[in-house]
Design a protein that fits this description.
Oligomer: single chain
Number of strands: 12
Structural class: alpha/beta
CATH architecture of the largest domain: 3-Layer(aba) Sandwich
Strand order of the largest sheet: 2-1-3-4-5-11
CATH class of the largest domain: Alpha Beta
Number of helices: 12
Mean pLDDT: 86
Strand content: 15-25%
């Protein structure tokens, strides 16, 4: 919004300066010598001074609060995922505490629907949007619409394919979330073994987690017997694992790109009567922590993140930008491993 506004104002200022110098009719023009005497230097505003004035005006406009408060949009890939449920609620609490409004939508992992919902929010007159894409590449048409409408974007949790559309990105250190799971697996299986990886190639956050996990186990004697797209979904993961475990009953571990995927793998492993496979997820959700707390679950660990801290930082960055203050391009939020050994430190009733 700020960049677009600056461009418009600067263009207008330059055009006005040109028209002022060219609009005087020939018959009224004074002789060159007289003109030079009649035009004091302080009255001839240089182009750079006009530009500075335009910048100042744009900054003042950016810092102005709309009458009635801001109207924010919110969209995430899957509003039913417990991670996004608490994240949306935390953003809503922060926005409403300032007397502003949040319009939330849920595309249910359908990027075409997400684009349509964003277009609808634009027509409702949102001032800015908190955005998590269903697909990093697929969301680009919506980003074009938001850019054209001059609506600032705070991208959270999962990166869009082109961050130049966004004012800032706020999200977990996803690579590290997968890395700590892989490092834990290496410690517990120093001789390696067969493993299954359940990823989600259209979700940049899951891609980063998977890369971190695979880098941690590289050269450690592990064989990936299957790597499939579970779409970050419990039911899809369970169905995939039911088939994979029939053909690979000797796997030592399963890595899921998020906790719902890990829980789907757990359901499939339990149904198959497996007792010696270790399952890792990423999120640190209450459901996974409850499994870890039993001390008897096949869930071995989770690369924990904090949706609460992601949401709070997203709100903070949004208001900083709208106030006309400079913001960073990226705001990483810490991730760490939770296992049965330390789950008591984080509790099982809510998110960290």
């Amino acid at each position: 919004m700020k960049k677009k506004l600056l461009s418009v104002i600067l263009s207008t200022a330059m055009l006005a300066a040109l028209l002022t110098g060219c609009s005087k009719p020939a018959e009224e023009a004074a002789p060159a010598e007289a003109t030079q005497e009649a035009a004091p230097a302080e009255e001839a505003a240089p182009a750079e001074e006009a530009g500075e004035a335009a910048v100042a005006e744009a900054e003042a406009t950016l810092g102005e609060r709309p009458e009635g408060g801001y109207k924010f949009g919110y969209t995430c890939m899957d509003g039913t995922n417990p991670f996004f449920v608490i994240l949306e609620q935390t953003i809503r609490d922060g926005v409403e505490a300032n007397g502003d409004t949040l319009i939330s939508t849920d595309p249910a992992n359908d990027v075409s629907l997400q684009i349509t919902q964003i277009e609808d929010m634009i027509t409702q007159g949102i001032d800015a949007i908190f955005l998590n894409p269903a697909e990093a590449e697929g969301i680009l048409p919506a980003l074009d619409m938001l850019k054209e409408a001059g609506i600032p974007i705070i991208n959270f949790d999962t990166e869009v394919a082109d961050l130049t559309y966004c004012e800032a990105y706020v999200g977990s250190d996803n690579y590290n979330a997968g890395l700590v799971c892989g490092e834990d697996l290496v410690k517990k299986h120093p001789d390696g073994g067969k493993i299954i990886v359940l990823d989600s190639p259209t979700m940049n956050s899951v891609v980063d987690r998977t890369n971190g996990f695979l880098d941690a186990i590289e050269g450690k004697g592990f064989e990936v017997v299957a790597q499939q797209d579970a779409k970050g979904n419990l039911e899809v993961s369970m169905g995939i694992c039911e088939d994979l475990l029939q053909a690979n009953g000797d796997v030592v571990a399963i890595f899921g790109g998020n906790d719902p995927t890990a829980l789907g793998a757990l359901a499939a492993a339990n149904a198959a009567g497996m007792t010696d496979v270790e399952i890792y997820g990423v999120d640190g959700s209450p459901d996974i922590k409850a499994e870890l707390a039993t001390g008897e679950s096949l869930i071995e660990g989770t690369g924990a993140q904090s949706p609460i801290n992601i949401a709070k930082k997203s709100v903070e960055v949004m208001y900083e930008f709208l106030a006309g203050n400079p913001v960073e391009d990226r705001y990483p939020v810490e991730t760490f491993l939770i296992t049965a050994d330390n789950v008591a430190d984080f509790g099982t009733d809510g998110w960290q």
